[in-house]
Amino acid sequence: MTVIKSIAEKGPIAEAEALNDRLAGLDLAGRLSLVAGLGGRVVFTTSLGIEDQVITAEIGTHRLPIDVATLQTGRLFAETLALIEETESQYDIKIQRYEPEKADIDAYAAQYGLNGFYESVEARHACCGVRKLKPLARALEGAAIWITGLRRGQSANRAETPFAEYDAERHLLKVNPLADWDLEAIKAFVSANGVPVNPLHARGYPSIGCEPCTRAIKPGEPERAGRWWWEQDETRECGLHVAEEAAAVAAV
After folding, report:
1. Which residues bind [4Fe-4S] cluster (predicted)?
2. 119 is in an annotated binding site
3. Distance separating alpha carbons of residues 25 and 193, to the nearest angstrom
4. Residue range 70-119, pLDDT digits in tens
5. Using one digit for the tens of pLDDT, what is the confidence trace for 149-196?
6. CB–CB of 100/108 below 8 Å?
7. Which residues face 71 on adjacent strands?
8. How far is the C-alpha of 211 from the C-alpha of 205, rounded, in Å?
9. Cβ(60)–Cβ(183) below 8 Å
10. Does the annotation flag 138 for ligand binding?
11. Model-level pTM?
C-alpha cells in the first residue's frame, strides 16, 4: 500500500502516529529503508550539518530512492558550498540545489536593505522566507514524505520531536529519523564511517546556516546558540519547521 493511499484510508494524523511507532524500533538504516519503500516521492532536505551528513551517507551507501536537496540561499559559508560537491563525489549522488528567486531578493533588499535582518525580527523572518521557505516549497513540490535531520537535543524548542508527524501546511508526512540521536552518537557514526563534515564544526560551529547569521558558540552554550545570536528569543527558528511560517508561504 502506498503512503498516499494509506493516508487517504486511515487519515493523515493516524498514519503519522502509526509510522512513528514503527520507526521507533528500527536503526537509522532501517528507518530510511522503511520510509523509502512507502511509495510516493521522498525528499530529504540537507543543510550539510553533521547530522544531515549522517542521513546523506546512509542514503548514498544503501542507494535508497530518496531525493536529496539543499537550499542554496546565496549566503552560505564557502566551506558549506565545498562540502556539497565533496559529498556528491563520495557517495555518487546528486544534491539538488534550490535557490531564491532574484526578484524576491531584490524586493527584500528594496524594503529592508540587503542585511536588514539585523534590524528587526520581522526583517529576519522575511529574509528566511525569501531565501529558505520559498525555495523549500519548490523542493517539496509533489513530495509525499519529507525527511529532516531534526534532533531532540538540538534545542529546547525541538525536545519533543517525533520520528514521524503530519505536516498539515504542506500536506505530507514529515520524518525525523535522528530524533533520538544525541551529538555524541552522531560524531561516533561520522568517525566510524568516514563521513565528510563541515570543517566549521571543529571551529565551534555545531549548527551552521547562512554566514551573516551564524557565529561560533561559547563553552556551555546550547548547540543552536550561534544562530541569529542578536535576537533574544531562545526558541528562535528560521521558519522551516514552524507551522505558521509554512502556512504564510503557502498563502503567498
Report:
1. 127-128, 210, 213
2. no
3. 22
4. 999 999 999 999 999 999 999 999 999 999 999 999 999 999 999 999 99
5. 999 877 777 778 999 999 999 999 999 999 999 999 999 999 999 999
6. no
7. 98
8. 11
9. no
10. no
11. 0.87
